[in-house]
Specification:
452 residues, Rossmann fold, 2 domains, 18 helices
């Protein structure tokens, strides 16, 4: 099957490479000639485990190719995927759809026969209607269909998510379009993926609703973590206790410094704006966005308190900068707010990340970037674990402590048990791991016990 992919960004590249690996003939088009040249040479502009190998394999077998010519890409294509960016629009937080609409106009000029226009980009409800209007106005003679097919890819696990999906949502009421989309995903039939057909607007809204719900779970457990610290409970035990309830589930119940990345912050805000445009109120989503923004600065204050309340003139090492492991994505990463708050308080920041330092240098200034975790810890007053990369899960704590000037560890991902860190001489501060003195707890129950 011939497929055109408009956009060689994260979604377009992963989707195109995976579809080519299924056996389809995929042509990826991008307006950036430097990106196209790099992809032809086997240089991948993003970090995603396994993606470079997948692209190289399918390019060598001539199922995956790259160009700047849209006419070349759509010639004979049965499905044309639009996978361009939809960043937050300045001023109101709504998704910027200019790239989507421009792609629709360009496709209308180049199509010569029936094709399904597949909206893979994350777009607000009703975008498919506008794309259809744009193409129909430009080419009233053209036979085509517009379908919504949102992506549900996790950065760091995108290839596995695409090949073993929880669900594939296709928004269309057109029988011919359904047949084409069924053929696109037919290679997945051995895995029996749940292919769900719905109307276009419901499909568009499903993507935003899913991300907003997951963001809500993260924000909820982060607030419970704050309560655990105040009340003397352990958030990891609480999360496991509620996560074992099958109605809740264990995923996205890991307390930390707040969510970031290219999807959750942007999509929650776009959903809120969409609700306002339609006269609806999403109070929970609004609270999630506000609480998450505050949390990133709050964890920086936690670091400062761990250092005695003043970090002026002190050096702090951050281990991990990207918003999650197995990606180089720095968009809305909690580390950005943490670094800025520490610098505002007078601290000097050193940092190490296995994949994200090149991207970090574009957004984090006056940071000393180091060659490894132990190099970053050399002579510092505190180490902060910001991103739970695998290589940070089993550090030689004796070596780490020996390198530091002051043995303070702030573990924003609860990677280490408190007892293990304290046994190695660290002052350990985690997330949601409160331990008030036993007498204080007894006194709350009965003041007479204070003397016991």
């Amino acid at each position: 099957m011939k497929i055109a992919m408009i956009g060689a960004g994260y979604v377009g590249l992963v989707t195109g490479a995976c579809l080519a690996d299924f056996g389809h003939n995929v042509r990826v088009v991008d307006k950036d000639p430097r990106k196209v040249e790099a992809l032809r040479a086997g240089r991948i502009p993003i970090y995603e485990p396994g993606l470079a190998e997948l692209v190289a394999k399918n390019a060598a077998e001539e199922r995956l190719s790259f160009d700047t010519s849209l006419a070349w890409a759509v010639a004979g294509a049965q499905a044309v995927f639009i996978a361009v960016g939809t960043p937050s629009r300045r001023g109101d937080g709504h998704a910027d759809l200019s790239y989507v609409f421009q792609a629709a106009q360009d496709v209308a000029k180049e199509l010569t026969s029936y094709a399904v226009i597949v909206l893979k980009s994350t777009v607000p409800v009703g975008t498919g209607d506008e794309v259809e209007r744009i193409i129909r106005a430009a080419r009233p003679d053209l036979h085509f269909s517009v379908v919504s097919n949102p992506e549900f890819l996790r950065e760091g696990a995108a290839i596995d998510d695409f090949k073993r999906p929880d669900r594939i949502v296709v928004g269309t009421d057109d029988d011919q379009a359904r047949e084409v989309m069924a053929e696109v995903y037919r290679p997945l039939s051995l895995n029996q993926p749940p292919l769900m057909y719905t109307d276009r607007r419901s499909s568009e809204l499903t993507k935003y609703a899913a991300n907003a719900f997951l963001a809500t779970k993260i924000t909820f457990i982060n607030e419970i973590a704050d309560l655990c610290e105040a009340a003397g409970a352990d958030v990891q035990d609480v999360a496991r206790g509620i996560g074992l309830d099958r109605r809740i589930g264990p995923k996205f119940l890991h307390a930390g410094p707040g969510f970031g990345g290219s999807c959750f912050p942007k999509d929650v805000n776009a959903l809120i704006k969409t609700a306002h445009d339609h006269g609806a109120t999403l109070a929970i989503a609004e609270a999630v966005s506000a609480v998450n923004d505050r949390r990133k600065r709050a964890v920086a204050r936690k670091v400062i308190r761990a250092c005695g309340g003043d970090v002026r003139g002190k050096t702090i090492a951050l281990l991990g900068l990207t918003f999650k492991p197995n990606t180089d994505d720095m968009r809305e990463a909690p580390s950005i707010a943490i670094v800025q708050a520490l610098q505002d308080a007078g601290a000097w920041v050193r940092a190490y990340d296995p994949a994200g330092m090149e991207q970090a240098q574009a957004v984090l200034r006056e940071v000393e970037y180091c060659s490894g975790a132990y190099a970053a810890a050399e002579g510092v007053d505190a180490v902060v674990i910001v991103t739970e990369w695998d290589m940070f899960r089993a550090l030689d704590l004796d070596r780490l402590r020996a390198a530091m000037r002051s043995p303070i560890m702030v573990d924003l991902r609860n990677v280490y048990p408190r007892g293990e860190a304290e046994a190695r001489g660290f002052l350990y501060v985690g997330i949601g791991r409160g331990m008030p003195p036993r007498k204080s707890i007894l006194a709350d129950l009965d003041p007479a016990l204070e003397q016991a």
